[in-house]
Automatic annotation (TrEMBL):
Pfam families listed in its UniProt record: PEP-utilizers (PF00391), PEP-utilizers_C (PF02896), PPDK_N (PF01326)
Ranges of residues in domain Pyruvate phosphate dikinase AMP/ATP-binding: 72-306, 329-383
Protein name in UniProt: Pyruvate, phosphate dikinase
Gene3D superfamilies xref list: 1.20.80.30, ATP-grasp fold, A domain (3.30.1490.20), ATP-grasp fold, B domain (3.30.470.20), Phosphoenolpyruvate-binding domains (3.20.20.60), Phosphohistidine domain (3.50.30.10), Pyruvate Phosphate Dikinase, domain 2 (1.10.189.10)
Binding sites annotated in the UniProt record for substrate: 608, 664, 791, 812-815
GO molecular function terms listed in the Swiss-Prot or TrEMBL record: ATP binding; kinase activity; metal ion binding; pyruvate, phosphate dikinase activity
Top EC category: transferase
Reactions that this protein is recorded to catalyse: pyruvate + phosphate + ATP = phosphoenolpyruvate + AMP + diphosphate + H(+)
Keyword ATP-binding: yes
This protein's record includes keyword Metal-binding: yes
Length: 933
């Protein structure tokens, strides 16, 4: 009897921990957070009438309960699994553990977001020494039965009993050698039978326990094994990188097994409904005849192309599914079309062909490169499959930066043709050059030393995740375009070349050789990979700007010459149409301002004027302005700096004509300007007309224990008012001059690190007076605004008072985060990684992430965000026209930008190359906000 169509009753009397799906079962609540992406996909495909083996899903909440309750199942879970198992037996017409007609099941992980290869799966659960005989009869294929059994023993031992899989791989290798075959597929039935014995023996020896023969025991332990895999190192590292919290948990999907390893009319494969590397509209994938489960992605045998197009792209001469099983291929394409129609997005599917019948085992939104994301959104929009709002949501905001990253220069590649070593699959576009490293550990080591490297591996497994993050690019000898290496690299935005079958590693000699031409590369020597073409060069190659940069900034390409640019522009134009938040840039030079404008900035939200003082030519006068003994000398130095400052502002105003430019008054920790060497001190003494001793004395007297909380920000402008006056004069004179040239200028003067209204009142008084003097002197006025940064918790709380003197607030969330948490921006690196990585937590015996994310990168909405809301409310109560923005680093981070939209800020400001990210994130926030209403 099927389970009732119970709604999810979290925390209620009888919580539902398990949901059945399949013929006769009501569709479970299609909630990804509850069922995981895989579970939801299967339940949904079943509801759509697609061919899916039936099964049941243990929810993510059961996993979370397990994790936080001393690794125990929640009450009722066992009974619910038993009931679902009975349902499944009825649906399949066979029984779990039956000796004559056994039901076998797969037990698979599936979190709410896809984490390719990071968690575990056990296939063929239910097999034992007796049911394997029944399976042989049922399949009329003894070989397939023992092939399944040996797979099951190895997977179960690894995932559930923690036996290192290397022992099984060695035994398998030895067996192939004995039998004189190259691939597992060549092993005879007898060899597989012996292998099963040997595998059990390995298990028993390593665990000190008999291999379990009781199917229910196998099932419940496999469920626990999958739960545990949520917290394994690679899964945690993956979550850290992508910013997913540890407390989501994984669902467990239990499904009736279908058999791809039944003979030549069976097989298994994976595919994408469009090319995930380039976005081209053709089915993309690989399959293996007579194979099961992970065989395709694990790179054990070279997979066959799914269709003729794939064969062409990969240069494979193996027969494709399109040619060997044309009807199945047609059906698969049709399923792909139906899925895209349903999900309005590119899908990543897994399928098995059992005795000539197609079964869909998974569908999920396919991971793709930034290039593919933009093209797919562009194409689907033109195909009428999605509307503009959906197109905006299709591209992960951070992925657009991939389109701006450098590529190799064609001419350099031609020049380096003698160093062209080999070619593989172009699995992740972009160019990467660096030292060759052959292990993940080495890649991490290189990264720590700040040396770029390319990770080269026979094949990458998900354990290599940390190395893949550390490397500039990834190159593998084995594995196809859908291998874990390719999928993960795409998610990370790393250039990736896969399946370079020519590479022969010699780990003892720390070198790699190219089989076909004998070229040799030692570990540490330079290598370059082109993930767009699949080329591998044994030399270092210079990169050049992306096509988008060539069109927009360098102007070396015309827009109509670049398809990529047109796709990018279409999506960005749509984003601009839907977003409400204005996007500005943080830029300190006319060049940066011009770049920002080309990338779509609608103004400059932060000019850090102290950066203009770092120039060697000006440094002496800056030091004299701070450190001279007499006020006259300090003022004189300030006056000498004024023309330089004005020059800078003239350039920025001209570049940003017609747009707002927010200039922040000086905010330097003064120690940054101190001369450090004796030579520099002597030079300064000469410049200031004083002695070396005096310079040293001054240095000592201004040394602060904590300069970030010291004499900086407006505190400096109050102590040295002529600095504020000089800067205001420079800003306003430049603005008037540019305005006289006929350009519109909209300067905003921003006072930093304000904590009290009196500080702003003081600075605003100086600014206004100086501006009036300049207007009088120059005979022309320009409109300007005065505002402040909100960087201190006190400023947020006092926003009502401070707003009396402010036309605008700009949230300086770098300092606001520092001061809210009491974590020094400069010293956070000492412990923040540990907080984010997690620490062992005694009471749950598990890893506890103290912070879900790095708060200097992703805005802390609960703490810092709360202060922002308070400041917004109190500030606007005093001044309803108060303009609100953000200019901390968070202004270019997707989730933080969405938060800024939600709390009603007017603009966000970020570094120039993140402007497209902010534009897209702001549009996504607007579109998502509308669809919530
Ligand atoms: C801030 O504190 O967020 C800010 C933008 O100022 P800075 O990073 O220069 O301190
Ligand atoms: Mg600051």
């Amino acid at each position: 009897m099927p389970l009732p169509a119970s709604t999810h009753a979290k925390g209620g009397e009888n919580p539902v921990w398990v949901y059945s799906f399949g013929p006769g079962c009501p569709t479970p609540p299609l909630d990804r957070n509850l069922l995981g992406g895989k579970g939801k996909g299967e339940a949904e495909m079943t509801a759509m009438g697609l061919p899916v083996p039936p099964g049941f899903i243990v929810t993510t909440e059961a996993c979370v309960h397990y994790k936080y309750n001393r690794l125990s199942f929640p009450k009722g879970l066992v009974e619910q699994v038993e009931a679902c198992l009975v349902t499944l037996e009825k649906q399949m017409g066979c029984n779990f553990g039956d000796v004559e007609n056994p039901l076998l099941i797969s037990v698979r992980s599936g979190a709410r977001v896809s984490m390719p290869g990071m968690m575990e799966t056990v296939l063929d659960v239910g097999l034992n020494d007796k049911s394997v005989l029944g399976l042989a009869k049922k399949l009329s294929n003894e070989r397939a039965a023992y092939d399944s059994y040996r797979r099951f023993i190895a997977m179960y031992s690894n995932v559930v009993s923690g036996v290192n899989s290397a022992a099984y791989e060695d035994a398998l290798k030895a067996c192939r050698k004995r039998e004189g075959v190259q691939f597992d597929i060549g092993l005879s039935t007898n060899a597989l039978k012996e292998l099963c014995q040997e595998f059990k023996h390995i298990h028993n020896q390593q665990t000190g326990q008999e291999f379990p023969q009781e199917p229910r025991d196998q099932l419940f332990r496999a469920i626990k094994g999958v739960f545990h895999s949520w917290d394994c190192d690679k899964a945690r590292a993956y979550r850290r990188f992508h910013g997913f919290p540890d407390d989501w948990g994984t669902a467990v999907v239990v499904m009736a097994m279908v058999f791809g390893n039944r003979g030549d009319d069976s097989g298994t494969g994976v595919g994408f409904t469009r090319d995930p590397a380039t976005g081209e509209h053709h089915f993309y994938g690989e399959y293996l005849v007579n194979a099961q489960g992970e065989d395709v992605v694990a790179g054990i045998r070279t997979p066959h192309p799914i269709n003729k197009m794939q064969a062409l792209i990969t240069g494979s001469n193996l027969p494709s599914l399109e040619e060997t099983m044309p009807e199945i291929y047609q059906q698969l394409e049709e399923v792909g079309r139906i899925l895209e129609q349903h999900y309005h997005d590119m899908q990543d599917v897994e399928f098995t062909i059992d005795n000539g019948k197609l079964y869909m085992l998974q569908t999920r939104t396919g991971k793709r490169t930034g290039f593919a994301a933009v093209k797919i959104a562009f194409d689907m929009l033109r195909e009428g499959l999605i509307d503009e709002r959906e197109a905006v949501k299709h591209v992960d905001a951070h992925q657009v930066t991939q389109l701006l990253t450098p590529i190799f220069d064609m001419r350099d590649k031609v020049m380096a043709s003698g160093k062209l070593a080999t070619r593989g699959l172009n699995a992740g576009p972009g160019a990467a050059s660096g030292a060759a490293v052959f292990s993940s550990e080495k890649a991490v080591e290189y990264q720590k030393q700040g040396k770029p490297c390319v990770l080269m591996r026979e094949e990458t497994s998900p354990e290599d995740f940390a190395g893949m993050v550390a490397a500039r690019g990834i190159l593998t000898a084995r594995g196809g375009a859908t291998s874990h290496a390719a999928v993960v690299a795409r998610g990370l935005g790393r250039p990736c070349v896969c399946g370079c079958g020519d590479l022969v590693f010699d780990h003892a000699k720390h070198e790699v050789r190219i089989g076909s031409n004998g070229m040799v590369l030692k570990e540490g020597e330079p290598v370059s990979i082109d993930g767009t073409t699949g080329q591998v060069f044994f030399c270092s190659l210079q990169t050049k700007p992306s096509e988008i940069i060539q069109v927009l900034i360098d102007k070396t390409k015309r827009p109509e010459e670049s398809e990529l640019f047109q796709q990018f522009k279409t999506i960005m134009d749509i984003a601009d149409k839907y977003r409400r938040l204005e996007v500005r840039a943080n830029a300190d030079t006319p060049q940066d301002a011009a770049i920002a404008r080309s990338l779509g900035a609608q103004g400059i939200g932060l000019v850090r004027t102290e950066h203009m003082f770092m120039d060697k030519k000006r440094l002496m006068d800056v030091r004299a302005m701070f450190f001279s003994d007499s006020e006259d000398d300090r003022k004189a130095a300030a006056n000498r700096l004024m023309p330089y400052q004005k020059e800078d502002f003239l350039g920025i105003f001209r570049a940003m004509h017609g747009l707002t430019v927010t200039i922040r008054l000086l905010d330097p920790p003064r120690h940054e300007f101190l001369p450090h060497t004796e030579d520099e001190q002597k030079a300064l003494a000469a410049h200031m007309g004083t002695t070396l001793e005096r310079v040293k004395q001054i240095g000592e007297s201004i040394t602060e224990a904590n300069p970030m909380l010291g004499h900086r920000g407006c505190r400096l402008g109050i102590a040295l008012p002529y600095v504020t006056e000089m800067q205001t004069r420079a800003i306003i004179e430049a603005a008037v001059e540019v305005s006289k040239e006929g350009s519109e200028v909209l300067p905003e003067i921003m006072v930093p690190l304000v904590a009290t209204k009196k500080e702003l009142e003081h600075q605003k008084g100086l600014i206004d007076k100086t501006a009036q003097d300049v207007f009088k002197k120059m005979g022309k006025e320009v409109p300007y605004k005065v505002g402040t940064m909100i960087e201190l918790p006190r400023a947020a709380l006092q926003a009502g008072q401070i707003a009396e003197f402010a036309d605008f607030f700009s949230f300086g969330t770098n300092d606001l985060t520092q001061c809210t948490y009491g974590i020094s921006r400069d010293d956070a690196g000492q412990f923040l990684p540990l907080y984010v990585e997690g620490v062992f937590f005694e009471s749950t015996h598990s890893n506890m992430q103290v912070f879900d994310f790095e708060p200097f990168q992703t805005l802390d909405q609960d703490g810092v965000g709360e202060l922002m809301k308070i400041a917004r409310e109190r500030g606007r109560r005093t001044n309803p026209h108060l303009h609100l923005g953000i200019c901390g680093e968070h202004g270019g981070e997707g989730r933080s930008v969405k938060f800024c939209h939600e709390i009603g800020l007017d603009y966000c400001s970020c570094s120039p190359f993140r402007v497209p990210v902010a534009r897209l994130a702001a549009a996504q926030a607007a579109v998502e906000g509308q669809s919530k209403k």
